[in-house]
Write a structure and sequence with these properties.
This protein has 169 residues and is α+β, with helices and mostly antiparallel strands. It has helices spanning 50-65, 81-87, 92-102, 112-118, 132-140; strands spanning 47-48, 128-129, 148-154, 161-168.
Amino acid sequence: MKLNKILEITGKIEIQSGLHIGGGDTEMHIGGTDNPVIKHPHTSDPYIPGSSLKGKIRSLLEWYIGLVEYNDGKPFGYRQLDAVKKQQPEIHNNAINLVKLFGVSGGDVLDAQQAKEIGTTRIAFRDCMVDQEWAMNIKDQNLLLTETKFENSINRISGTAENPRNTER
């Protein structure tokens, strides 16, 4: 195997509605957000991790190719290639290319020949940071980069609110 070239694709993502990629929080604060978004540790600006982009694109490709049914909704892997070859040979090459592109999971144990066939992961994703010009404009207007959305479910019989929660987006 030989690296022939590196192709870099860049772009901007424009969020049209609320987006939540969970950041987790080690402690719960009274009156705090139940479900915060991930934020950069130095700037505290929200961002989209490269791993989230990679997972979403892989998921969309699995749906597009028709591979979702082969692993009970989990990411498609090397172990499912034989089933695809038997049941849908017309998409087998696309399935192999997907595995070659995104790599195999830690649960896939390959022998030397299989590892040579698949090779190393051929795609890498980087974190998507907030556009600094936009962020400065928002901050100059004394606005926040995120919002907390309060949600509830209503009991249809009693008409009372149940399960209140707040999510940052």
